[in-house]
Amino acid sequence: MGRLFASLVIYVSAGDQPGVANENGNRPATKAPGNTPAGDDDIVIKIRDLKKSFDGRTVLDGVNLDVRRGETMVIMGGSGSGKSTLLRLIIGSFKPDTGSIELFGGEVTTLKRPGLDAIRRRFGILFQSGALFNSMTLAENVALPIQEHTDFDRNIIDIQVKIKLEQVGLLEAADKYPAQISGGMKKRAGLARALALDPEILFYDEPSAGLDPVTSAQIDRLIMDLTKILRVTSVVVTHEMDSAFTIADRMAMFDRGRMVAVEDRAWFAAIRDAPAADHLAEDEQMIRQFLRGDAEGPITDRKDSGALEKALFGELAALHTPSIVPTRAGR
């Protein structure tokens, strides 16, 4: 009943209130995440020297990152930079080669299935596609994790589901199936399911991908509202820059498996808006190009005129070409 009561209190008191009144009726000030030095107690995700390779290709190369309680951390980078791999390592989809990942102060890379399942109940995930079960209604999709991980009776689960759907503006669509709703509604339904167990951390994998600008802006607003009202920590993986600068407290930039920079939003905005890149360090020039979407800069300079030839003919030279045996000899 504890989680249900918490949801009811949050739902009834939702609004622009920055905190919860204490026993004297006073509402404490909310600490601004990203602007205050973080002690160990404020860090809910701690990543140190993380490395991961697939088939000999290094995807993550010594990554370090701290995520503070109550903040929205945006992880960004180009396709194949390693940001989605990092997210999957954090949630325990697979193990790193070396390094450590701590959630809520405990190491997760060495956990067995029961311990990992207990940690997973403390966070929710919005997958890029929404990952809804097509054979279930939206209400049934949201109810599923509650049924799996609690002993609430049917009536309590129904109340919880209605609260979660209302929080994302989908209560009226509760009986619809995923095939009957838009892409933006699927994202919101997936978010309602991620909220089902009242998580302390929410992970978002490309929440704006494939959405029109208006729907994308609505998803951004929903992320900010839920982070504020529910006081959760949000980790958002994206390469959508408008979204990133709208929702972020702090931002982390990936490039070819390296964590290039972890700074507050204002720092990245200053790099983006710099009138010229000449005075910037090499990594800062790369960040500026990425943030601005410029066609020229360090990222594209890597693809020099000889890169394609080397990639093609170097690979071809290494291949063993089988002999061609004529099948109609003598004709």
Give me some keywords for this one.
331 residues, four-stranded antiparallel sheet, disordered N terminus, alpha/beta, single chain, 12 helices
Q: Mean pLDDT, as a whole number?
A: 81
Number of domains: 1
Unreliable residue runs: 1-37, 315-326
Which structural category do the helix and sheet elements fall into?
alpha/beta
Strand content: 15-25%
Q: Termini, distance in Å? A: 85 Å
Major sheet attributes: 6 strands, mixed
The succession of helices and strands, N to C, reads: HEEEHEEHEHHHEHEHEEHHHH
Please report the number of helical segments. Answer: 12
CATH topology: Rossmann fold
Count of extended strands = 10
Second-tier CATH architecture: 3-Layer(aba) Sandwich
